[in-house]
Amino acid sequence: MSEIKTKVTNKNPKDFINSIEPEQKRKDALVLLEMFEKVTKEKAVMWGESIVGFGKYHYKSERSTQEGDWMLVAFSPRKQNLTLYIMAGNKDSTDLLKKLGKHKTSVGCLYINSLADVDQTVLPELIKRSYDFMKKANPSSS
Hints:
It is a single chain. The protein is α+β, with helices and mostly antiparallel strands. It has a single domain (13-135), classed as Aspartate Aminotransferase, domain 1, CATH 3.90.1150. Helices cover 32% and strands 23% of the residues. It has helices at residues 13-18, 23-40, 94-100, 123-137, and strands at residues 45-47, 51-60, 67-77, 82-85, 104-105, 110-112. Strands 1-2-3-4-6-5 form a 6-stranded antiparallel beta sheet. The protein starts with 12 loop residues before the first helix and ends in a 5-residue tail after the last helix. The mean pLDDT is 93.
């Protein structure tokens, strides 16, 4: 079985964010860092090379022997967009998603091009809903 590559590292999240180009993506990532820390009251931790995560839980796959640790919520300033790992527990958040602004979603992620495209009073509530859902679903989370 292959080993999971996305693990906690000792890399400093702020150093990672400060290395991001272009400048606007770096500025957006700094705002997200502050927003996630405020909502979760968790310290940011790097997961792999490019994911800034908050909190963690241990999982065991029901379909394989795979198990490991994963972040409760996270974001990654990717080249194409800002990827927010916050859709867990947000299947009932269509009300907020309608108010959010320009975005795309997948099963576990919210994709936005720029923070200027979304309502920054709605985004923290989406983060909070997902974080609270993940904490409740994983009582041994930290």
